[in-house]
Amino acid sequence: MRIILTILVFGVSIGASAIDFYRALPHYTIKSDTYTNDLLTGQVRVKGHVLDYNGKGLAGALVSTIDEETSALTDANGAYDMIIHDSDTSLFVFMDGYDEIAMSRYDFRAGHTVEVEFRLPIKIEQDRKTPVVSFKPVVYLYSTTTLNVSLALDYLGELTFTYPEYKEGWNVTVDAGGVHDSKRTYPYLFWEGEIDHLTYEKNENELAGQLVATDTLVEFLERQLGDIGLNRTEQTDFITFWAPKMAVDEYVFVQFLVDDLYTSNIAELTVSPEPESLKRVYLLYTTYQDVPNIDFTPQQFEPFERKGFTLIEWGGSELKTLITL
After folding, report:
1. Fewer CB within 10 Å, N- or C-terminus of the chain?
2. Which of 93, 120, 147 finishes a domain?
3. What is the pTM of this model?
């Protein structure tokens, strides 16, 4: 906890994206600061609420001075009330499952009551200690003319299985009849692997994706995959593999990493000759028994037109939770 405080309060160097994220979100608001004359010498009353980003009160959140000498826990409504000293300069708030936040330096004046409302953003980082499995990325290749195609996969993890065998790449023939090597014909090229760390993407500091009730999951996937550009065969392969895994609870949060996000987060794919049309789709999902408090923005996808030599790839990973404690 104190490591995080050092980063936020005292300005230790962190990544630019993390700094932008914390600056962009309104983590707290000074609702009022008034002289009340009901306190002892040097005392300041600080009260208010700790809320999530949906405005729901968070019970059991810790509100504390930076030196941790004075603290309070929020009640069932997220309310807190505490007496601090006018020499204190900041407060921080901590709760499991949410990003810890801290106020900027503030002039707490003796005899004043200061009302501060905190809003905690949910953590969206995956535990770096647990490898994430890349399940069933498959590569479809289409060509009406005969092509000798080589593919090299630069995966940001360790490959655990491929079919056909991946040596230093795949070398196959693609024609109207499918994908072939010297041994047989394949519906697609297949690989799986493990990656050390994988998180959900944010779009301008907002979590992109959709929370879906699993009794509507198939219809959702058909619609989203159609918007992305997968044909009926590819959609069927995707849904029959993923829907049973995703429907184990009542709700599922879904995000798609498409094209450049696939390349930067999962794997780069070098193909010769270059496809005239290419679409790469990677699924991230987390299941929930109850409705979680998640702020998100639904994803929108650009129309995809197939022409000439075409490559389609899809795969995915389950992230056990949006929250890392």
Report:
1. C
2. 120
3. 0.64
